[in-house]
Write the structure tokens for this entry.
Amino acid sequence: MNRILQFVTEENGGGTAVAEAPAAPAQASDADLLDAYSAAVVNAARRASPAVVNIEVRHKAPSEQPQNPRRRQQPMGGSGSGFIFTPDGLVLTNSHVVHGADSIEVTLSDGRAFPAKLVGDDPETDLAVIDIATSNLSSVEFGDSSAIQVGQLGFQYTVTAGVVSNLARSFRTGAGRLVDNVIQTDAALNPGNSGGPLVDARGRVVGVNTAIIAAAQGICFAIPGNTAQFVAARLIRDGRIKRSFIGIAGQNVPLHRRVVRFHKLHVDAGVLIVGLEDDTPAKKAGLVEGDIVIELDGKPVRNIDDLQRLLTDERVGVSIPITILRRTEMITLDVTPAESKPKE
């Protein structure tokens, strides 16, 4: 049975991580199971904790001219978490943690504090990269977020149990973008924990925790690590992400083996369309709910991450083929992606 362990590093402000323990022998004793479980926690903590940071931000007061001239308005502040993913000080966190901040300070697990500058911010995926410009730091690597399975056990450092309950959730960020394939666990995610990493037993990041859904305390949502890695690379290169969109909400689904063999497909999974926005390229192209996207512009689409990677700035305004499964029939249509306009 695959298991994951989740912990919150209290001393640095609440970065969250998950570790996957090895499957136990069928006849293992309770003591053996507890030893394996504890070993997984220790292993994950040893690898990930040094890279988890606390982030403090300051915003200017809403008005430079206070209504009461005798009372000076104080700058507003906030806090969150993040994690170092390069030894030279690049930190990944949530956009809503640092968006619009006038100053950012990062505190490492060893207590050292550094000012940080914003490298890039993408409110549409609630991800941001900041830089503390310091070398020889402990960092974490990215893993494969598609390897996570529903039903894996979660466990916080504060000994609060949690379970990965869904891998196909969708929700809108504060910028209005629908983010698909979100990882959901019932491990509590409290204020200050946003931006921490979800990691496997080897300490590799498979998700970035976020707490942007109103009244969702007690539930942890995480942006998939594969999506986070792609977004981080673009933010480092360009400082922003220009992307195209076709206007669908989807979730990853496996394809029936008979359908795969009959159509001689190169994929065994695709993206099920569960919703379409009005007056969008998808609607104009003739896509409908229930269609399964398996190819875009000649490239295979196995999951949401594949589709988002293909909807780049180069495809804005360009008519490209999209291949779908409609029931058991394979159909190719032409779709012209439009430029996605992020909301501030």
Q: What stands out?
A: The two ends are 44 Å apart (CA to CA).
